[in-house]
Amino acid sequence: MAAAANSEATVACGNCHEPMQRLMLPGHYGRTVEVDLCSHCHLVWFDLTETARLSGPALLDLIGAMALTQRLPHRTLEAKAGCARCGAALKTVHNRSRWGASLHLECRAGHGAYQTFAQFLQEKGLLRTMSRIDRARLLQTQGRIDCVNCGAAIARDEETCSYCGSVPSLLDVARLARALDPEGVLEPQAVHRDAVRQQALQCEACGAALPPGLSVDCAQCGATLAISRLADAHERVATLGPALRAHAAKPSPEVVKRRLEALDADLPRRREFTAQMEAEAAAQRGHHRLDGDWDWSNLFGGGTNPVRAVLLALVIWFVWYFWR
Questions:
Q1: How would you class 243 by CB atoms within 10 Å of its CB: exposed for 0-12, middle for 13-18, buried for 19 or more?
Q2: Domain ranges of the chain
Q3: Which of 86, 121, 141, 144 has the fewest CB within 10 Å, making it most exposed?
Q4: DSSP assignment of 19-82
Q5: CA distances from residue 123 to 98, 116, 291 in whole angstroms, order as listed
Q6: How does pLDDT run across 222-252, given as a tens digit for each residue?
Q7: pLDDT (tens digit, 9 = 90+) per residue, 172-202?
Q8: Distances, alpha carbon 291 to alpha carbons 38, 185, 223, in Å
């Protein structure tokens, strides 16, 4: 099922100034996440924390929408590109996650940020740089090398895409399937046959060791490990869509049990953190008292308070004295 899109886009791209496509994607806990996508510049605009709120079905829909836009010619990102909300100048922000370095173009006023398709996929840990052996095998098997960002053809010896400037990369299909289904609730697929292994030169589908050079497909099980065409990668995992949506709507009892067990296992740490916060707050209150600061909240609390009784008596006396 494709991502729902508003027929009237309310946001214009800060690079080409054309209306962007607004995608209504499924988020966690039954919520909807709005993401704006520029088909001409191959950019995605995220407000605040939208990228972290995308569920597995949402990631699948977004990659499908990205693949469809690669049929259009690419427009180069200009240095004067501005915020999609206010038009303000952008700044390059470098991030680092467990998957490595990534970047985005952030509004200086804090309204959101752009990412190219390749930057978004890199942030999710789904891309790796294409080697010369990869290029040779792609030319041998497919006759061409495609840019994973804009879809344009890349020459054998080009260091970057001549249309969008992206570094030639491959999309890891096995890792994509794991990102769509992090809880492993679906029936075993070709890419779900074994536990994830992050070691280099190892097939994530069957776990077999890969000799140097065989990085596009696995010689042991035949699984496609990396693809340069975004549409091909989406096609290989699109069959997971119905099961992913069914699971999001109603998780299986086994998954609910695992979630509860994970919460129970984390309960001691949460209690320790709460106790530490309470101790720090108590110490801070004691510090204020030693400095001569008075905790005025005590005057309005429950129970007997001598200071409060004296103050009330003084108030009553003043009222009687001036109004008698």
A1: middle
A2: 4-249
A3: 141
A4: BPEEEEEEBGGG-EEEEEEETTTTEEEE-TTGGGGB-HHHHHHHHHHHHHHTTSPP-PPPTT-B
A5: 9, 11, 48
A6: 555 678 888 888 888 888 888 788 877 787 7
A7: 887 788 788 777 766 554 444 444 433 334 5
A8: 58, 57, 69
Mean pLDDT of 294-316: 64
Report the C-alpha gap between 10 and 294 in whole angstroms: 52
- Bridge partners of 173, per DSSP, are none
Kindly report, residue by residue over 44-84, the tens digit of the pLDDT. Answer: 999 877 788 888 889 999 999 999 999 888 998 888 899 99
The two three-digit tokens of residue 214, written as one number: 């065989």
CB distance 190 to 240 below 8 Å:
no
pTM exceeds 0.90, yes or no: no
**290 vs 276, 283, 284, CA distance in Å?**
21, 11, 10
Is the backbone of residue 100 left (phi > 0), alpha (psi -120 to 50) or beta?
A: left
